[in-house]
Amino acid sequence: MTATTDLFGHKKLPIPDTEGIKYAGSKLKILPYIFDIIAGLEIETVLDGFSGSTRVSQAFAKLGYNVVANDIAEWSETLAKAYLLNEEKPQKYQAIIDHLNNLQGYEGWFSQHYGGIESSNEKHPFQLKNTMKLDAIRDEIDRMGLNEVEKSVALTSLILAMDAVDSTLGHYVAYLADWSPRSYNDMKLKVPNLFVNKRKNKVLKNDIFDTVKGQAFDLAYFDPPYGSNNDKMPPSRVRYNSYYHIWKSVILNDKPKVFGKAQRREDSRDGVAASVFEEFRKDDKGNFIAMQAIRRLIKETNAHYVLLSYSSGGRTTKEELHSILNDSGTLIRAKEIDYKKNVMGNMRWTNEWINSDNKNTEYLFLIEKNRK
Ligand SMILES: C[S@@+](CC[C@H](N)C(=O)[O-])C[C@H]1O[C@@H](n2cnc3c(N)ncnc32)[C@H](O)[C@@H]1O
């Protein structure tokens, strides 16, 4: 656990350690600020609506909140089931992990598409010796008759182990020309840093609009994907479906048809609109479609508080964002986080800050809904 510093010198809960893969937009570094901004609020039930790496969900669960983790991605669901639904001591999984580590590797679907040897001219995300182990371990997981949580723990362990020996910049749309030093290591599974959940947490793999229907929460935390604000390079936006296609294949083990140099799954093609939040175009009234989706989401969410993460790489104007934040609630706290200086300051609405500084600044907005 790492201790947090309270802005006002109050005694704060330490932020629990979390575990995860390399993930674009992971809020690992933001965790202390999230708990800072909600300090003093009466909160028991929490929705992490775009749970991604599950770092935020893990932290809330470890602190004893009742958590619903939701994301449309398979990998997020698997990680969340392992960390949030486990009620057993971590040692219970050691025998499964030992069994999987002892398997003999072979050249299967993953090796065929993603495994490279040192002398190869083509770029690959992993060394062949490690994809061979991946092939053997992944097939065996399906044969072991594991229950839902055990299978999620085994898959989480496999994904974490592959992530530790990758030769990438943290995504799978293009691979490095030279092998990364870590790719030479032998892939080895470990029991993930699980904890015994005392609460009945829930894990969902839904479009967020379906998840918020008919459910109430004390706090809803929203960290949607934000498109790039670089008009000249729309492809630079993060598209989770294409960035992490490989984890989807590891989870489903469906050996899909692949395309292109990066050997992506057919269903991760750019033409397939994965999410309205990744939409970078404007509607016919000139408003960004993704920002209008956030407006609608806040409106349709039945929560006492909504906490919204926003990054300055996102696309909006100050006026549009202000209007969204006050449309169906009251903005009660707003924080601007400077990673490098490791500080959080109160936001100054008077400054032209959105998209104006070329820095990747993070913002947190706390909205109170249903104010009596
Ligand atoms: C910025 S990331 C979230 C990062 C996360 N807070 C963390 O700390 O790792 C955005 C996430 O939104 C998910 N997503 C995109 N569209 C969605 C939708 N319509 N409903 C639910 N999740 C969605 C993506 O799969 C991605 O994991």
Structural summary, described in words:
This protein has 372 residues and is an alpha/beta fold. Helix content is 30%, strand content 15%. The protein is built from 12 helices and 12 strands. It has helices spanning 31-37, 55-62, 74-85, 94-101, 109-114, 128-143, 148-163, 208-212, 240-243, 245-252, 289-300, 318-327, and strands spanning 45-48, 66-70, 115-116, 126-127, 202-204, 216-222, 258-259, 264-265, 302-311, 330-338, 343-346, 362-368. The protein has an 8-stranded mixed sheet, with helices on both faces. A hairpin with a 4-residue loop joins strand 10 (330-338) and strand 11 (343-346). The protein is globular and about 60 Å long. It starts with 30 loop residues before the first helix and ends with a strand. 43% of the residues are buried. The model is unreliable at 229-236 and 350-357 (pLDDT under 50). The structure holds S-adenosylmethionine (SAM). S-adenosylmethionine is lined by residues 23, 25-27, 50, 52-53, 55-56, 70-73, 76, 207-208, 223-225, 240, 275, 277. S-adenosylmethionine binds at residues 23, 25-27, 50, 52-53, 55-56, 70-73, 76, 207-208, 223-225, 240, 275, 277.
